[in-house]
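Continuing the series of single-chain predictions for the mutant panel. This is the parent chain; the variants come on the following pages.
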Amino acid sequence: MTRHTFLVISGAVLLFTGLEQNALGHGTPIQLSAVDGRLQTDEPVYESTFEEPDFPLPSATDEPGVDAVSGISVADQVYLEVTSPLWFSTGTSEGSAVVPTGTLTIIGPNDGQDYYEYNVTGTIDTLAGMLWLPHEGQVDHAHGLYVLSDEGTDGTGVYGLQLQFSSPQFASSDPFLLLLATHDFDEADFDAASAQIFAAVPVLGDMNGDRLVNQEDVPLFVEALVNRPAYNLREFEFPVDADVNGDLNDDGRFDLGDLGSLANLLAGGGSAEATTVPEPGVALMAMTATLMHLLFHRRSKVADGRLRRFC
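Parent structure:
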C-alpha cells in the first residue's frame, strides 16, 4: 500500500506519481451500519461502470463512497479489506470468469493531506486494512475511488472484486461484491457476466441466493440435501450452486457431514442479517430437527403404491 500527497481541484483529485497525472471523480455511497456488534452493508452486490478513459487519464468509477448511517461513531475505526482476487468475465455464452491481466487500483479517502492506494490483480487477493472511517472527523461521505489503472489484455467485460469492512470495535461485515463494467461493455450481457463472476466467488453457506449466511439458509440447506428436485425449482435473487455453497467442510461433497459446519458458521455470526446467533449445539439440533421432519415427511408419502425413499 502506497502513501502519496494529492491536490484537490474543482471537485476532482489530481494525483502526482512521477510524471503521471490521473484526474478522478468522487463516488456514491455504500451505506454502512453497526448492528448487534457487527458491521453491515446495505447491499451484498454493487454495480458500477468505468468511465471512458481520456488519455492520459485511465478509466475510473464513481464507487466507493461510504456513509456510516447508524451505530458507528468518530471514535470507531473502519477498514476496507480485499477478500478475493480480481475476476473478469466477457459474458459470452458457455463462458466463465477468468483471471484478468489488468490491475484495479483502490484509492482510499484522503485525510486532508494524504491518500492511500492499493493495487489488486487476479493473483493479489488480500488487503489487510485500508483505513476508511473516520474521514476528516466524520463518518459519512468518505469517498474513495476504483481506477482501472492497467487494462492489460482483458478487453471489454466486467470485473468482480469481493471486499469487506473490518473494525477493532465490531465484527467484520459479510463480504460484498463489486461488479465493475468497462465503459464499452454491452449492458445486455451484464447479467451473464455477473452470473459467471458469482460462480467464481461463491458465498459458502448461502443457500437462498441473497449472498448472506444466516438462519434463513437453514431450511433451504436441508431441502437441498433431502429434496434436490424441489430445491432446484426455486428462483433466487443471485444464482446458487448448492454443491459448492453447501460444501462447508471442504471435502468435495455436499452431504450430511456439512451440517455441523453450518452450525459452527452460524454460531460464529454468519451474517450481519442474523438477529440472533445460537450456540453451535442449539443450531445443530434445530437443523437436525428440520432434517428429520423433512425425511419423515418424504418417507410417509406414497406414490403409485410405492414408498418414496430418500437416497
